[in-house]
Design brief:
The protein is elongated, with a radius of gyration of 49 Å. It is 14% helix and 40% strand. It folds into 6 domains: 87 residues, Beta Barrel (OB fold (Dihydrolipoamide Acetyltransferase, E2P)), CATH 2.40.50; 68 residues, OB fold (Dihydrolipoamide Acetyltransferase, E2P) (Beta Barrel), CATH 2.40.50; 75 residues, Beta Barrel (OB fold (Dihydrolipoamide Acetyltransferase, E2P)), CATH 2.40.50; 84 residues, OB fold (Dihydrolipoamide Acetyltransferase, E2P), CATH 2.40.50.140; 79 residues, OB fold (Dihydrolipoamide Acetyltransferase, E2P) (Beta Barrel), CATH 2.40.50.140; 103 residues, Nucleic acid-binding proteins (OB fold (Dihydrolipoamide Acetyltransferase, E2P), Beta Barrel). By secondary structure, it is mostly beta strands. One of its GO terms (cellular component) is cytosolic small ribosomal subunit. Belongs to the bacterial ribosomal protein bS1 family.
């Protein structure tokens, strides 16, 4: 074996000698209450690192972890050597820091004329207030920020946040050009447009008229804060550092080929977007919207547009005309649906019973809607087999009813309807079951000039009680009975001239055992008057 020279022996001893300030790597071999023990590589010694000199909590270290430390104290007498992980990392990082390079830093405290920051959370540096991009009243950021080292003299390092960001902005504007596709996050939405963050340091503007080909689009509904979007750069000003974006230019202008896609007289599907007093608008596709005028909604009498369509409904419409230059389109709802009166006899024959909805109450009856564009007239006399004084007490607008079709006038778009004839005539049963002289029960329904009307139980028909037959003591029926009062009466006369008409019944509330038939005839004549 070759003999080492004296100089080589001294060099080997230097390698393994523990000296204050030297940096070693070592493995954690024990963890106690105050810190960790580290066995150094290339040296027979062990060192102790207190919690204060560790980068992390001692609970985060495991036996066998390899860490870098710097010797801070050598005690040969006691054999206890102290070291610091923080100082080792600081030394290495400090040595690596160079002027003109960028680093991450955290704010430590506010000092005179600026701030103290820690580069990579370890090396202290000074950030002048003029280069911090912070107003005097603003709080220090809690998260990491980017900084550029603008001076390093001895242990004094000066950094700039402003220079760091300006460099990043320059790089961005150097890499992006007009016409490029970019992706960003919506930061703020205004009535005139939106601001979109393209990077941590560059925000672009998206004008409202560049969001969609649909000019009536609700900007705040379409763009939500935090939404990720793709857009095209339509204008970039490198000098003033401004960028304008467009989403709609990702698609071709739909009006350029509108005559090809939606020729006149074609029937298309669309979504109802708005309802006006004079009609409603329909969006056929994004950017293409047309108007359905009220004259193109109803085949018959004009009704409430809201009863026909609602915002959000998908409807069929027919294209009437296109004004490409002014981006306008007229549509027809009724033509797309077809004229319901064209083949009316196929659905609504005279004599059939159908369902309908009360559309409007009139003084002499009601308009009943059978379907869109098809209505009929219900005269007050066709409401009930009983007499109706006030139609509003019997029907309500919007209520559903069953009606019998009495007649259909296709040429004039008219139809006569009946509710009472949709039901069996109750007088047919009354005639079979009730005879003159029978006693029936009922309630006083209303008063008339010469008596009262009694609603007969079981049969739901009206009988006439003359005042003269209400009591022997009084000729004023209102002094004897009250509305709703239950009564027991004797049938004086009952007849049904025609099963399609109402019958007549005259009753008496007094003892009529000796009542003459001639008097009943007189009472009926009075009733007819």
């Amino acid at each position: 074996m070759e003999k080492q020279s004296f100089e080589e022996l001294m060099e080997d001893l230097e390698i393994i000698e523990l000296k204050k300030g030297r940096i070693f790597e070592g493995k954690v071999f024990e963890i106690d209450n105050d810190g960790i023990w580290v066995a150094l590589e290339g040296s027979p010694g062990d060192v102790f690192v207190t919690q204060d000199e560790l980068l992390r909590s001692k609970r985060d270290y495991k036996i066998g972890d390899l860490i870098t430390i710097k010797i801070t104290k050598v005690n040969d007498a006691e054999g206890l050597h102290l070291a610091s992980e923080k100082k080792a990392v600081w030394q290495k990082l400090f040595n690596d820091i160079k002027e003109g390079e960028n680093y991450k830093a955290v704010f430590k405290e506010r000092v005179k004329n600026g701030y103290t920051v820690l580069i990579e959370g370890v090396v202290k540096a000074f950030l002048p207030g003029s280069l911090s991009l912070l107003k005097i009243y603003e709080d220090m950021p809690s998260e990491e920020v980017g900084v550029k080292v603008i001076s390093k003299k001895g242990r004094n390092i000066v950094v700039s946040r402003k220079d760091y960001i300006e460099e990043k902005i320059e790089v961005f504007f150097g890499n992006y050009k007009k016409g490029m596709l970019v992706e960003g996050i919506v930061e703020e939405v205004k009535d005139f447009g939106a601001f979109v963050r393209l990077s941590d340091y560059v925000t672009a503007f998206l004008p409202k008229n560049e969001v969609s080909w649909n000019s009536r689009m609700d900007l705040k509904e379409f763009l939500k804060i935090g939404k990720k979007i793709k857009a095209i750069i339509v204008d970039i000003d490198e000098k003033d550092k401004k960028i304008n974006l467009s989403i709609k230019q990702l698609k071709d202008d739909p009006w350029e080929t509108i005559e090809v896609k939606y020729p006149i007289d074609s029937v298309v599907n669309g979504t109802v977007t708005k309802i006006f007093p004079f009609g409603f608008t329909v969006e056929i596709e994004e950017g293409i919207e047309g108007l359905v005028h009220e004259s193109q909604i109803f085949w018959g009498r004009r009704g409430r547009i809201e009863d026909v369509v609602k915002v959000g409904d998908v409807v069929k419409v027919k294209v009437l005309d296109i004004d490409k230059e002014n981006r306008k389109m007229n549509l027809s709802y009724k033509l797309a649906m077809g004229d319901p009166w064209e083949n009316i006899e196929e659905k609504y024959n005279e004599g059939i019973v159908v369902k309908g909805t009360v559309e409007k109450i009139l003084e002499n009856g009601a308009i009943i809607k059978l379907e869109e564009g098809v209505t009929g007239f219900l005269h007050v006399s066709e409401l009930s087999w009983n007499f109706i004084d006030n139609i509003s007490n019997y029907l309500k607008e919007g209520s559903n009813v069953k009606v019998k079709i009495l007649s259909v006038d296709k040429d004039n778009r008219k139809m006569r309807l009946s509710i009472r004839k949709a039901l069996e005539n109750p007088w047919k049963k009354v005639i079979r079951e009730v005879q003159p002289g029978d006693i029936v029960k009922g309630k006083i329904a209303k008063f008339v000039d010469k008596g009262a009307i009694v609603l007969v139980d079981k049969h739901n028909v009206e009988a006439y009680l003359p005042s003269s037959k209400a009591s022997f003591d009084s000729k004023n029926v209102r002094e004897i009975f009250e509305i709703g009062e239950e009564v027991e009466v004797k049938v004086l006369e009952i007849n049904l001239e025609n099963e399609n008409k109402r019958g007549n019944m005259v009753v008496s509330a007094v003892n009529l055992e000796n009542f003459e038939g001639k008097e009943a005839e007189d009472i009926l004549k009075d009733l007819e008057k």
